[in-house]
């Protein structure tokens, strides 16, 4: 469940929200996420989301200031569900863990490109709630990647994760919007890991 405090520019803040309101908010997010799994963002009607969540349309807008705000929360929820379903083994090398994590991120967007499209669409939003949640989404994604670069040290791990996240975003944009291939997304991202592989192996052997 998303835990980011909200409220700027409309929308009830999560901080201090009673359990029954959190449950209602979660129903709205779940209904919106399910809608995006079935259809494109532009096809989704907020009134339909409210109906599935069993809340009045006005009630939905008490929790979310806009459709964009709601789907910024949905994007976070989708990412959190993906992380919860990921298993990591310390028996594998740092390189293998990085590749597995990277492939998982790419495959998630490959299977459901509509979530990547929402991620890109929200970049142009002027809603402060959306900006806050988008920043948290990007930070969370990079932090997740940085976990498997940790053997390089904190600063180097953060830099490597930032670069890899940028590569993934750039290549996914080419594949989803400009007719590129998903195979090329994997190839370029894997090539980046190839370049770091000797450093990862050396760092893992350091005392």
From TrEMBL:
Keywords: DNA-binding. PANTHER family: HTH-TYPE TRANSCRIPTIONAL REGULATOR RUTR, HTH-TYPE TRANSCRIPTIONAL REPRESSOR KSTR. SUPFAM superfamilies: Homeodomain-like. Pfam families: TetR_N. This is Transcriptional regulator, TetR family. GO terms for molecular function: DNA-binding transcription factor activity; transcription cis-regulatory region binding. It comes from Cryptosporangium aurantiacum. The keyword Signal does not apply. InterPro entries: Homeodomain-like_sf, HTH-type_TetR-like_transc_reg, HTH_TetR. It comes from the Bacteria. Residues 45-64 bind DNA. Residues 22-82 form the HTH tetR-type domain.
């Amino acid at each position: 469940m998303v835990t980011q405090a909200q409220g700027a520019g409309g929308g009830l803040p999560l901080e201090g929200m009673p359990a029954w309101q959190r449950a209602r908010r979660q129903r709205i997010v779940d209904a919106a996420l399910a809608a995006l799994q079935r259809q494109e963002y532009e096809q989704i009607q907020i009134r339909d989301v409210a109906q599935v969540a069993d809340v009045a349309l006005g009630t939905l807008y008490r929790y979310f200031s806009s459709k964009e705000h709601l789907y910024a929360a949905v994007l976070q929820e989708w990412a959190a569900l993906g992380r919860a379903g990921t298993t990591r083994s310390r028996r594998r090398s740092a390189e293998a863990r990085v590749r597995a994590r990277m492939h998982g991120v790419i495959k998630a967007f490959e299977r459901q490109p509509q979530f990547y499209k929402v991620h890109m669409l929200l970049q142009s939003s002027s809603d402060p709630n959306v900006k806050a949640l988008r920043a948290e989404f990007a930070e969370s994604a990079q932090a997740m990647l940085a976990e498997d670069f940790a053997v390089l040290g904190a600063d180097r791990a953060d830099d490597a994760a930032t670069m890899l996240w940028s590569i993934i975003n750039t290549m996914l944009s080419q594949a989803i919007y400009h007719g590129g291939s998903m195979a090329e997304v994997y190839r370029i991202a894997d090539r980046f890991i190839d370049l770091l592989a000797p450093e990862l192996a050396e760092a893992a052997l350091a005392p």
